[in-house]
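pls ignore typos typing on phone
D-xylitol-5-phosphate + seq
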Amino acid sequence: MIIAPSLLAADYGRLMSETLRIKRSRAEWVHLDIMDGHFVPNISFGPGFAKRLRPLTTQLFDVHLMCSKPTVLLEPFVKAGADRLTVHVELEDQISGLLWKIRSMDKKVGLAVNPPTPIAAAKPFLDQIDLLLIMTVNPGFGGQSFMEEMIPKIQQAREWRAESSLSYHIEVDGGIDFDTAPECARAGADAFVSGTGLLKHRNLPRAVSKMRRLVNDAARVTDSDRPTRGRKLAARKAG
Ligand code: DX5
Ligand code: ZN
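k done
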């Protein structure tokens, strides 16, 4: 299970010390939200900023591009130290080229799905990606409420992954906190982006460990549940 605090919820006047705070929290990844003021109605920061932050930590830089023309940003972000680049499936005819370009630069490939977009839009690309990002809010701003209706998408992503023996991460992003993270873990998520839900805590290492413990426990309950449910069903069928 992976915890990825989002810098979007950090104090922008202190992005360097906030990055160090995330480093000390021992979260696995740092999530960087890149917004272009066109794909989403907000602007965040560009590759120049990411480059300044890169020397501060060895944590994986999980770059989420909420941009209409990410093709012009891929190389600058790779040069700035991105480890994964996630682009949105809503970009339709750009997708194949984008996924190919990210892979050709030897970086991890992510594909994101917005709440109004059916998860089926991602299906043709599942064998080409390392991570499927299921947005649990409409992107653009931190601090929004988690959308429960996205849970079936997580379950579907898990089913497809098992059916095709794939290994992409299922990441959730938006409104993730101590209540919603375990709910997503039970549905099949294994990477948890959290901005406000984590960074509001003064003791970030404790908050990160708590979220990790909650999602591990939730996933464990689901796993140990599964054979029992299977056995019950089999017994019912047999009987
Ligand atoms: C939303 C961004 C998220 C955001 C989540 O547009 O993609 O990564 O930082 O923020 P919270 O966790 O506050 O909902
Ligand atoms: Zn994000």
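The first strand starts at residue 2 and ends at 5. The chain has one domain: 2-238. more later
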